Structures are given as structure tokens and as C-alpha cells.
User: What shape does this take?
Amino acid sequence: KNGGLNSLNSLLAGMLPRVSIPTTQTERTYASAGLFSSHIRLSLSSSASSDLLTADDGTISTWTSPSGQIVTLVGTAHLSQKSNEQVTQVIENCQPNIVMVELDATRLSRIGINSMDEIQLNVVTSEDIELPNQPPQPWYWLVLNLLAQIGRKLLTGMYNDMSKDMNNEDGGGGEFLAAIRSAEACPNCHKLVLGDRESVATIRRTFQLALESGNPFAVLGKLSEANEQEMQGLKRKLEEELAAEGKELDSAEFQVAMMERLKSDSEVRNRLFAKLEKEVPEFTQAFLKERDYIMGQAIGRELAQDATVEQLVAVVGLAHVPGIQAHLEGMFSE
Assistant: This one.
């Protein structure tokens, strides 16, 4: 049952390899949220529409622009079959004109798509979107890039192992493949947006911030400690509930149960988000805040460029939903 904590990485969406940093086999981490302001105005509409949910788990948020354009954010877990099914249902129900996924072109091969040319939609990326006050390239960039390439291979291997441990034949990122196939089958959908930053760039940025902190090993230690405190409590709670019900789960089933419980327990998520934001700002800056900004900009740009867009569905990891939501609220408040 200790292996159940491995599933928590699946809540930090889309990196394939993922954006969390492994510590031990039973201690993985997912994350916090941040916000940047933007230049496209969106107004908050309503809370998650119940008819879009396969379960009332609070993983969907919707916004409406001043001109009536509706944005639906679907928060997922990478290794969750329920997330895959939910994504398909939301796209079928919304019939969006545009679908955005938390991927970049280099990660398509991880979900079985060799190139953008294989996708039967107009495909655009966010690679031209820059951060405010874009950080300069450090003199030790080549070293960072080498570390990032190594880190990507290690994280890819970790997610492959997690998929095997959870008996998940689809592997990580199945919700993104489901989103792309559903978008292709949707008669109203004409565009797919690969809205995320390239994964090696994110890992490289994390190493840069950790080194600039003056004590990169302390960053890793704080990340592990913050995660362990919350996850051990959630694990004990689930074990107690299973014991009271007289249920026994094998390791794979327990990992899935932990992941689904974390998806539905907003109190634990919010507490962990706040802790990571306070104690490991290097991690949240590179893996969440900056990517939330880029994906938020990608959404806003599509709405601004095409007034005929009525519905846009964005499929992102659950850990990104608070940050993107805050980003959109920042747009609305300007």
C-alpha cells in the first residue's frame, strides 16, 4: 500500500515526462498554483456545470467572455481512467470550436502521435508566447540543458513504472489522447492548441531556479517534506476507511484509490498547494506559475483572434486548474 503515493504525480498534468520531481518510490509530488495577469479580458461565469461532470468532483470550471465565448477547464489526473472518460464526455457535450491540451509538440510521441501532421485538425502551439520579464539565458545554459535532458529521461522512466504499477495499459497522458481524438470527431471543432511550454525548457528552468537559490539540495528536501506530510495523512485516512468497510486492495488498486481521493478532496489539495507555494517557490514558479501563464495566454489569444469561437475546452492537469483560473480572474479584474 505504500506504493499508493506514486499515483500523486498524475495530478500534475501534461509534462510527459511529468513536471514533478521524484524523491523516493512512495513519495512523489504534485503541486501548487500561481497567477499572472494578462491582456485578454475574460469574465467569470458560473461554477462547474453538473451536466458536464461524470462525477461531482470539482474538477471542471467554466468562464464566459464579455462577448459570450465559453471556456471550460477540465482538470485531470494523468493515470486516471475516469479522467479520460470525463474528457471525452465534456467535449461531446460542449461541442467546442477549439480544444487546448497541456502538451507541446515534442510530447506527442509519448501518446502515440508521431507528428502534428497526423492530427486531423488545424494545430497551433504556444511556442511563441514569452513570459513577462523573460529571464535571460544564463552563462551555464549548456550545463542546465544537459541536466534537463537527463531529468526528462528519468521522469519518463518513472511514469512508465507508475503505469505498470497501476496496471494502466494506456499509460500517462491518456486524457490528452482522448481530447485529441474527441476533438477530431467533433463536427464543430476546427483547431487544436498545444498550449504548454516544451518540457525540457521547464525542467531546465527548474534547475536554474534551484541553483540560483544557493542550495539546490535544500529545495529538493523541502519538496519531499511538504509532500510527505499531507500525503501520509491522506494515506492513513484512506486505510482507516477501507479497514472499517472490510475492504482490501492490492497495490495497484490502492494507488488508483489514492489518486481518485486526492482528485475529490479539495481541502487536502488546497492545503498542499499553499504549503508548496510557501516552502518551495522555485518548484511552483517553474512547473506551475510560468506554465499557467503560457497556457492562459494561449486560451486568451484564441478568443481574441476569432470572435466566432463560441466554446473552448482546455484539458490540463488538476494542479494547473487553480493557477489558470486565477490567471483568468486576473484578466477579468484589469
